[in-house]
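Lab notebook, design round three. We kept the backbone fixed and only want residue identities now. Task for the bench partner: fill in a sequence for the structure below.
Input structure tokens:
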């Protein structure tokens, strides 16, 4: 994954969040403050603007700038959590291109960063419930020598499964935890936007893989 592909990952994620902002807000209205879609859309719109014309010298630069923008522009919990994760990923990557093993290390740093900030663990009905299985799938694929496209596809599937599993969980962290048993039966909006992050990565990695195969 090089600098242009990293930019495309983030802009693809921004477009996906913009497209699904109302859906994220609907999910959040059931168990939160009904602002997750609005906040994420506002944040990633600002990220796209911050990346426009930005001359990054490493993959990490793109992610750090994205994360810093989210922290500064987004209210609520989503800005600090996603921003911290992206900044931690970026700080782990210092070259103009990275391989799947290096990206796996960075994704691990991102999860560690957001867990340190939010203190959530698997089963709490949060971002972590999609991120943790996605990371495990990506790491396993990378260790087996998979391409970025294959590893990202595995991560996307795992993130989606983790997201869906939150419906049956009782929230133990965040605004949803105040509802107690009433939080059961609702899909977590943070886990959903986390799936979008891995879905965007899988899409751009697949497109790049096709372009490489076709000689483009």
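Proposed sequence:
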């Amino acid at each position: 994954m090089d600098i242009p592909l990293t930019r495309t990952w983030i802009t693809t994620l921004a477009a996906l969040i913009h497209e699904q902002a109302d859906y994220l807000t609907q999910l959040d209205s059931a168990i939160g403050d009904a602002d997750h879609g609005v906040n994420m859309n506002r944040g990633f719109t600002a990220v796209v603007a911050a990346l426009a014309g930005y001359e990054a010298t490493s993959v990490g630069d793109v992610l750090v700038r994205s994360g810093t923008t989210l922290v500064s522009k987004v209210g609520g919990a989503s800005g600090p959590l996603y921003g911290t994760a992206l900044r931690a990923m970026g700080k782990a990557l210092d070259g103009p291109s990275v391989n799947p093993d290096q990206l796996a290390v960075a994704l691990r740093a991102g999860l560690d960063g957001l867990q340190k900030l939010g203190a959530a663990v698997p089963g709490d009905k949060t971002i972590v419930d999609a991120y943790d299985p996605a990371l495990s799938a990506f790491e396993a694929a990378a260790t087996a020598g998979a391409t970025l496209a294959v590893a990202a596809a595995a991560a996307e599937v795992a993130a989606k499964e983790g997201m869906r599993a939150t419906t049956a969980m009782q929230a133990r962290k965040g605004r949803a935890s105040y509802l107690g048993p009433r939080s059961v039966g609702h899909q977590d909006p943070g886990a959903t936007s986390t799936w979008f992050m891995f879905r965007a990565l899988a899409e751009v990695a697949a497109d790049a893989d096709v372009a490489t195969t076709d000689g483009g």
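Keep this in mind before ordering anything: The chain has one domain: 3-213.
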